[in-house]
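queue> pop job 88
queue> type: inverse folding (structure -> sequence)
queue> payload:
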């Protein structure tokens, strides 16, 4: 019986995690497609796109709580047998996205010039960045609606619909970009402005599709579609700890890059190698984050149903899966380390330096697997306050350790060793410690 339950949970994890992973991989394709198309306009246009993309990714990264928090709250009500309440909670999340998105758009458009000028690029590059960013910011609200609607569907244990929408949306984005950037027939293209317009169009279509799925389900169950001020306020209040968590984690990553650029050797070789290693590390994080998404949905549902024993069992199982996924990612990364540099750079020095850095990253993957899974479990349990506190503590420990290492060794490899031990190891210790106690096992809707 125990083995049957374990196999059943394993199938459920796969059913949720695989589409989630594919959707996560599809998300960066919006900007990658833009980069591939805009890159043929010229180097300055591509550099302008890079500056604008950095601003946009920061906004979206800070608002990821719209997906995570909504997943947990919707899954809890679903587990409690209250589908109508789950959808009402999801609708509140959609309204919160609108409440945040509209003023953020207006503020972003007003501050476009100061934001891009802060990067200190040349006048022409800054002009292209401002053109793209001012138009792309019009897609802020659709992007946030996509996050919130995706969170609702994940909470309803549906990760396939967001995947389908992501794939179709990316295809539409490519078509619109090609037509609007380069023109068609006798119609001239709009250059980098056309890329921004095409991307916003694809985002609007994707958001409309996801919101339509949620609204249709809400209507079917009789859930209200009108703004519910207490519900929106509660969703916003619950989001604050997740914002703190995200800020602290992003700050730790920025500290690492700062250490490489300023405190370390600062050579172009080390900076380029660090960027490549971080890009590869981020891609592998998508695989582990897919397990975290499954953990959010499953944990929320189990606790909503009042099943503490089942929550413990599935958490243990997902930790094993996280370790296993980390081992697989680590072996693949270590085995591919001598060859991955060839895909991104023609510089032999970068190739040589990238190998030991990737080996260090590979050794940390099993720990990362545990971290991602437990992060998802605690988000699904609504334990945002602990995650915020843990993030701040890890940032406080990571910052001096990485900076001291960089100044003392001037070695990119040792910076990555410290990052792996202090950042990933610290998070693993704090999250494992929390998972052992019962404070987060709060049941009910």
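queue> result:
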């Amino acid at each position: 019986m125990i083995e049957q339950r374990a196999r059943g949970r394993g199938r459920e994890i796969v059913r949720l995690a695989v589409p989630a992973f594919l959707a996560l991989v599809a998300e960066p394709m919006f900007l990658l497609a833009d980069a591939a198309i805009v890159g043929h306009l010229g180097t300055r246009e591509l550099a302008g796109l890079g500056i604008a993309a950095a601003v946009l990714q920061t906004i979206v990264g800070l608002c990821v709580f719209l997906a995570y928090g909504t997943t947990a709250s919707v899954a809890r009500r679903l587990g409690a047998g209250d589908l109508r309440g789950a959808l009402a909670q999801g609708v509140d999340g959609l309204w919160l996205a609108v409440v945040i998105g509209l003023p953020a758009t207006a503020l972003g458009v007003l501050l476009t010039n100061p934001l891009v000028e802060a990067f200190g690029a040349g006048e022409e590059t800054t002009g292209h960045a401002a053109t793209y960013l001012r138009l792309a910011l019009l897609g802020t609200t659709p992007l946030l609606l996509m996050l919130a609607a995706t969170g609702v569907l994940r909470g309803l244990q549906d990760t396939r619909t967001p995947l389908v929408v992501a794939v179709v949306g990316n295809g539409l984005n490519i078509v619109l970009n090609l037509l609007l950037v380069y023109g068609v027939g006798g119609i001239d293209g709009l250059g980098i402005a056309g890329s921004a317009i095409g991307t916003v169009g694809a985002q609007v279509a994707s958001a409309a599709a996801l919101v339509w799925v949620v609204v249709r389900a809400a209507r079917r169950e009789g859930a209200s579609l009108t703004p519910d001020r207490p519900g929106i306020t509660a969703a916003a209040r619950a989001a604050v700890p997740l914002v703190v968590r995200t800020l602290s984690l992003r700050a730790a990553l920025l500290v690492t890059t700062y250490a490489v650029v300023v405190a370390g050797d600062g050579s172009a070789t080390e900076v380029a190698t660090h960027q490549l290693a971080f890009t590869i590390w981020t891609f592998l994080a998508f695989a582990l984050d897919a397990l975290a998404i499954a953990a959010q949905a499953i944990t929320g549902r189990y606790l909503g149903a009042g099943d503490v024993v089942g929550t413990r069992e599935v958490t243990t199982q997902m930790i094993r899966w996280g370790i296993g996924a980390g081992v697989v990612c680590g072996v693949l990364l270590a085995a591919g380390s001598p060859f991955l540099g060839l895909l991104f750079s023609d510089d032999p020095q970068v190739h040589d330096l990238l190998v030991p850095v990737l080996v260090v990253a590979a050794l940390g993957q099993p720990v990362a697997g545990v971290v991602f899974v437990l992060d998802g479990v605690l988000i699904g349990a609504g334990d945002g306050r602990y995650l915020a506190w843990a993030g701040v503590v890890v940032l406080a420990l990571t910052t001096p350790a990485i900076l001291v290492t960089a100044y003392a060794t001037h070695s990119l490899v040792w910076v990555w060793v410290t990052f792996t031990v202090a950042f990933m190891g610290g998070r693993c210790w704090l999250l494992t410690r929390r998972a052992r106690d019962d404070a987060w096992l709060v049941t009910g809707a």
